[in-house]
Amino acid sequence: MVITNEVKLPTEEELTVQELNLSTAALRAEPFIWEKPEFMLCRKELDDPRACLNEGKAVTSCALNFFRKVKRSCYEEFMQYATCLDKSSGTMSFN
Predict the structure, then answer these.
(1) Which of 26, 48, 54, 69 could form a disulfide with 22 if both were Cys (CB 3.0 to 4.6 A apart)?
(2) H helical segments located in 1-95
(3) For 17, how many CA atoms within 13 A lie in the half-sphere containing its CB?
(4) How far is CA 95 from the centre of its chain?
(5) pLDDT surpasses 80 at 70
(6) pLDDT band for position 69 (cuts 50, 70, 90)
(7) What's the half-sphere exposure (Cβ side, CA atoms, 13 Å) at 14?
(8) How far apart are CA 53 and CA 61, in angstroms?
């Protein structure tokens, strides 16, 4: 995609969301984040990240809620699983 003067870029407010301060292994250990069909379809079909901001925010919100629940109920077990993924292979695969 070529950026020209006609391309509307999102404002900083549109891009600002609470970030997930987690390792890649922790994110890979939670597969439900990546099963958001609206976000994945939007990214694939439109091939324009600007068009998928709202869907992306919904995925981030879902992930934040999930990890808050994990922290309250089974943090140690989840982190053991994430660490196992991290150290078991270079690709953090589930095999």
Answers:
(1) 26
(2) 12-15, 24-29, 37-46, 53-73, 75-88
(3) 17
(4) 21
(5) yes
(6) very high
(7) 11
(8) 12
